[in-house]
Amino acid sequence: MWIVKCKKIGINLIEYMFGVIISFLMYNFFVLLGMLEFLNVDIIPFISIQQISVFLGLCICFMLIWSLKKKSISVVNIVLKKYIYEIHFMLYIFSILIWYKCKIIPQLLWIYAFEMLIFYMILENEAIKVFDYKYLCDSSTISNYKEKSIVGRNNLTKSQKKALDQLINILDKRRISESFNIALIGAWGSGKTSITDTLISELQNRKKSEKRYFILKINTLTFNGTKNIIEYVKKYFYCLFKQYGIVGLNGKENVAFLSALADMLNDTDTKSSVINMLFSRKETCFCDIENERQLFMQRVQKLLYISGRKNIVFVIDDSDRSDIEEQVLKLLSEFSSIDGLISLILLDKKHDINLRKSIDLLSIDPGETDDITNDVYMSIDKYVHIRVRIEDDFHVEYEERIKHQIILENKAVTKKENCYINCDGERNTISLFSFVKDYPTAEFVKQSMNFLGNYNILTELFLCNLEKQDKGFGDYFEGIVLEYLYHSKELLPFIRKMLLTKPEEWDFELHRINMVWTNSFGDDRFDWLIRLQNNSNQMFWMLYQLIEASEMVGAIESKIQNEILNFVDLYDYYMITKMPVEDRTWENRKENPVKYSGLDDLEVIVFEKEEIKTINIYIQEKQYEKVKLILVEKIKDVTNFYLISAILNEFMAYLRNIMNNFRTFKMQLREAELLDMNYLDYLIKEWQPTKSLTDNIEKMKKETSALKNLNISYPSLNAYINMVLYTNYISKFDTRFFNGELKNSRLWIMHGERRNIIVISSKQNTQYEFHFLDSQGNIIEDLCEDEIREIQRKNIVVWSN
């Protein structure tokens, strides 16, 4: 590196000597013309030329220290880069002044010559210096109102980290002589800029022993044409060549290829095009642009060799949102012709044409193939050599970044007072098939009760607890719902047995329940929603098929009815008749037995043991109408669970779709804050069932005669979530307050300075009875006197209507 510095100093010395000679000639020319006679009079009599040299020396020392210590760009650098030619002109004027003033003190010229040399060195160094980009990788600075990319690996989602690692892997595995274009493809708002800014930050912070790169970020929205982009790139290369001593006095000729490339492009500004045409210099000789390309390529390779950098990387951002997108794509082919130059362009999903998935050429008539393949190959494949895709994160709701931004929004929401929930003293046994019971939040307003639409005590408790969890938003929400389901009377006996029995001692039934209902084998894709839907679907349709089977068998000859002894035989006959399998008939069924796994869930989850016995007795007595009545009654409950599973699945799909688009996600957070709602309430109110979901009910009624006369409708998502949260935080899954303690009670939150307290109060004449819980639903027994007084004061307001 010291050789590079010595070479650069040598070039600066030569340039400085040329400047000295020119200024001396200009000085003599002006003297001959008598144009410097006015300098005989001291314009500032109290400052001598010697004092100016001392002052100049001090300024130069200050500039030298500043230049050595400064690591990031400043206003001074911008001024120097922008007005370098004007500063050079001023130096010439100042040097002529020095020549004239020092003619009677020749030894002072040497002092000024040395000072001016140092000043010139500092000036040239600062004018050509290229700085690294500075990014703040701190999650604490994340704001819902900042329309900026978020930088830092820890701030990226799983899918974004995957794309980032792919980009780093591509860059590091390529050789110094290779050149190619990469497209980072993702939907609008998927975080493309966050990925590339993190990439730049990580590559710039590498140690000297690691693979390092020159990186230039080009935001196409700030340019009005590709010609301006090339001019920008040309100045960048010129500074790098000068900084590493690649070029001498003819520095700009080493970027002649880029100059020629810029001249060949049509400028978007008509006025400037006319001016360039009128005043352009007539070339008197031919210069081969390919030779200029080769010369430029040699200079680039020399730059990389001397600097120890592996490649030069251009990061081209926002091209898919600019008016020059097509021209920028074509420009990539020119960049890729330069060895060592890698371009990374950010593009929208509309450019991601996959020939293998979009077209099956073998299935197309030969006459149509040409037109179709032409359309496909008119895509970015001509300009881009590698595509890196940002995939939707299947569990984006688990991400810490998502949770952090939701908590930020929740802190800005007003925590309303005088709001309460009416409790009841009934014992509500938890069941998978329970119909939804709502616990709406009410507000006391002018001697009346008003049910709020934008404030919910229970979702406030959810978000308050979320802040204290190590889990993400989605992970905690999933855990709350699953805890409710696992405490149902159908699943709780199995869950308890699993916890009390060593896994190696589990029987087949426990293993089956574990696999079907708890997903302990850890497949991310087979998540809790898919489990719920699979289980509810299977139970629903098997029940429906049993209803059809009861109708079918009730109408056949008694001989077969005599052979059907239980509901398993009933279902087996239905399957053999409706969905026959080769070589398996009713007569040889025992030689070819089939086990229907879904019947196990019906037997242990849907039906009580006594109900199974009753059904089997009715079957043996050939009373199929009574069998059908029991099954129809059961399918009502199972349908309720089926519909709850469906709305939860659609709601979470909607939530994941929103959260995978960070611009839309932040927009929703702002809107929720504007409406003074927490984000979970906002999501619930914003979400609407899709038409396919609502149409599914009518389709079910048409296809299932057993449901035609049933009053079926989708349960309220808001009510279901309220029920789950109330059961979790307040009744603790029906393990307390089951003796009527909550009868005619009101539940409210006291937002205290020390902590938030859930207060459950009931009124007996003029006296109040209290139960106190913390935000997690644990009983509090250590209230201080200040808290008691505040609770009593607010309680009177809550009960004032």
Provide the fold topology.
Blueprint: H1 2-32, H2 49-69, H3 75-82, H4 84-101, H5 106-128, H6 158-173, E1 180-185, H7 192-204, E2 213-219, H8 226-243, H9 256-264, H10 270-279, H11 289-307, E3 311-317, H12 325-335, E4 341-347, H13 355-358, H14 366-377, E5 386-389, H15 400-411, E6 419-422, E7 441-445, E8 448-451, H16 457-468, H17 473-486, H18 492-500, H19 508-518, H20 528-554, H21 558-563, H22 567-578, H23 597-606, H24 609-620, H25 624-659, H26 662-674, H27 679-686, H28 691-703, H29 717-729, E9 745-751, E10 756-764, E11 767-773, H30 785-798
Helix pairs in contact: 1-4, 1-5, 2-5, 3-5, 6-7, 8-9, 9-11, 15-16, 15-26, 16-29, 17-29, 20-22, 20-23, 20-25, 24-25
Keywords for this entry:
8% strand, elongated, 54% helix, 11 strands, 30 helices, 6-stranded antiparallel beta sheet, 801 residues, alpha/beta
In brief:
This protein has 801 residues and is α/β, with parallel strands linked by helices.
Describe the structure.
This protein is α/β, with parallel strands linked by helices. Helix content is 54%, strand content 8%. It has a six-stranded antiparallel sheet with strand order 8-7-6-9-10-11, covered by helices on one side. Strand 7 (441-445) and strand 8 (448-451) form a beta hairpin. Helix 1 packs across helix 5 (106-128), helix 15 (400-411) packs across helix 16 and helix 20 (528-554) packs across helix 22 (567-578). The radius of gyration is 39 Å and the shape is elongated.
